Amino acid sequence: MKIVASLAAGMLALAAASAAQAAGLLDQSNPGGSAGLNGVGHQWQQEVTAGVGGRLTGITLWGGGSARVRIAEGDAFNAGPFAFSQLVAFAPNNPAGLFIDTRAANIILSAGETFVIDLTEGTQGYTGSITPYVAGDLWLAGGGWPTTFNFTERTGISLAFETYMGAVPEPGAWALMILGFGLAGSGLRRKRGVAAA
After folding, report:
1. Which CATH code of 1.10.357, 2.60.40, 2.60.120, 1.25.40 fits the domain covering 21-168?
2. Closest CA to 117 of 156, 66, 167, 60
3. Starting from the edge strand earliest in sequence, which strands make up the sheet with 125-129, in order?
């Protein structure tokens, strides 16, 4: 009984710690400036380079209206299939921005690996940074432009964003967790057998 209670308390603590760490650790940050980026009829792709390896747990963006946010590994407009796609609604004038939880997509990145944040189907716009992000450029397509082009190279503006990374659980941690669930189930089964006798 005490073992089962201890295991249950340990699992609850693990779940609480997991929820508290949902955002992960801040990996890359390109704070906002005063640049507005038109989202209507445009497709924007910000290249981001992971600073640390791990699981991409979320991103924060600033803007107005709504947009489809997608994430893919690779370089802008050469990225692989989108591993994450979600329609989001921004809260205008929110200094904290909109945190988008990407854990369900299970995007695992190595330090130095490039991925893109893709913004499309925008109904208003996004916040850009007048300080260019040094580890990747902002690219633009659509809106009457004949070709895709490097917006950062032409204007010095990047997307305002933050990315968060979490640790990838080691195989030993998974084994320990499975063992704990097994012991808890075994303890509960024994308890039922004793109560029935």
Report:
1. 2.60.120
2. 60
3. 35-38, 125-129, 158-159
* Tokens 């050469």, located at residue: 78
- Model confidence pLDDT, tens digit, residues 25-69: 999 999 877 789 999 999 999 999 999 999 999 999 999 999 999
Are 122 and 71 within 8 A, CB to CB? no
User: What is the per-residue burial (b if ≥16 Cβ within 10 Å, else e) of 53-71?
Assistant: ebbbbbbbbbbbbebbbbb
The reported pTM is 0.75
Is 94 in a helix, a strand, or coil?
coil
Residue of 132, 152, 122, 128 whose CA lies nearest to 140 = 152
